[in-house]
Design brief:
mainly alpha, three-stranded mixed sheet
């Protein structure tokens, strides 16, 4: 082993195809990334500017929007750069950093969606106690706890993966640094890593999804006990957007990691990876704006305020009597 050269950089193979395919991929990534950044930052600005949206539900949504900007920014800039150039190398440290932040934001989003489900459970099942139970300190604790679990998982996975020996091939068959293709390149025994990956990631996915599932079982049972159809519709509308976001996120994660390896191809996995790293952050602000009446009303109020500011006449110009204009 002493004569084997250790890997100091990796090559991200990305998607197959010639210059034409890479141009199409560049435009696709660019549109999705710009839409994700603009949409999520726009959602943050709307929630921050409108006082009627300063509630626990929208505090969580604001955190989710910021998280989605960071999540997509971990992947998209490097993917865009690789579509434009032939050199797809990434240093060992940059690969470790990308993997750390990807794991951090992905884990945090799972816990944050679970916290949002708990918030909807308290709002619908205990509306009279909602303001007291979902206090600002508790909301801050749930958000910070989500990030703490993300840091713990990311630190564990990154340390275990990048302390392995990489002494052979360095071509990562993906468009970002992820665990499965990296483990396949290691010349060390990766059985412990695979067990930890399965146990840790599996427990995170199952526990957060269980919180979401139990919360919505109680939510649905409460909604069904509401006698008026209008009341049921109003109660369901408060959680419809979150339910759609949950189905997108956990459905993609289960599809990505729960399928048997025998039927999962690398190219197929890349397409799914694009969906949950770039497409979902793009869709989330659309879901919460198109399916949420509070956000729609806030958008209309912001639009009216902007139009009033634009149509307001400026101060009349008065010539200065002391000014002499040469003829």
């Amino acid at each position: 082993m002493s004569n084997v050269t250790r890997v100091s950089e990796f090559v991200l193979l990305g998607f197959r195809g010639g210059p034409g395919v890479q141009t199409v991929l560049f435009l696709l990534f660019l549109v999705l990334y710009v839409a994700a950044v603009v949409g999520n930052l726009g959602m943050v600005a709307i929630i921050q500017a409108d006082a009627q949206l300063h509630t626990p539900m929208y505090a969580f949504l604001q955190s989710l929007s910021l998280l989605d900007v960071c999540y997509s920014s971990t992947i998209a800039p490097r993917a865009l750069l690789n579509c434009l150039r032939r050199d797809h190398t990434i240093s060992f440290g940059a690969c470790a950093a990308q993997f750390f932040f990807l794991s951090l934001f992905g884990t945090t989003e799972a816990f944050l969606l679970a916290a949002m489900a708990y918030d909807r459970f308290k709002a619908i099942c205990s509306p009279l106690l909602y303001s007291a139970s979902m206090s600002p300190p508790l909301c801050a604790l749930l958000v910070s706890g989500s990030y703490l679990w993300g840091v713990l998982n990311a630190s564990t996975q990154t340390a275990m993966t990048f302390t392995l020996s990489f002494c052979g091939a360095n071509q990562v068959n993906d468009f970002f640094c992820d665990v499965p293709p990296l483990l396949s390149l290691s010349c060390s025994d990766t059985s412990v890593n695979q067990l930890v990956l399965l146990g840790l990631c599996g427990s995170i996915i199952v526990s957060t999804f269980a919180v979401v599932l139990v919360s919505y079982v109680y939510i649905v049972s409460t909604i069904l006990r509401i006698r008026s159809q209008q009341g049921r519709r109003k109660a369901f509308s408060t959680c419809a957007s979150h339910l759609a976001a949950v189905c997108l996120f956990f459905g993609t994660v289960f599809f990505m990691y729960a399928q048997p390896s025998a039927i999962s191809s690398l190219e197929h996995s890349k397409v799914v990876s694009v969906f949950y790293t770039v497409v979902i952050p793009t869709l989330n602000p659309l879901i919460y704006s198109l399916r949420n009446r509070d956000v729609q009303r806030a958008l209309r109020r912001s639009g009216r305020q902007l139009s009033v500011l634009l149509m307001r006449p400026g101060p009349a110009w008065r010539p200065d009597s002391h000014c002499c204009c040469p003829l």
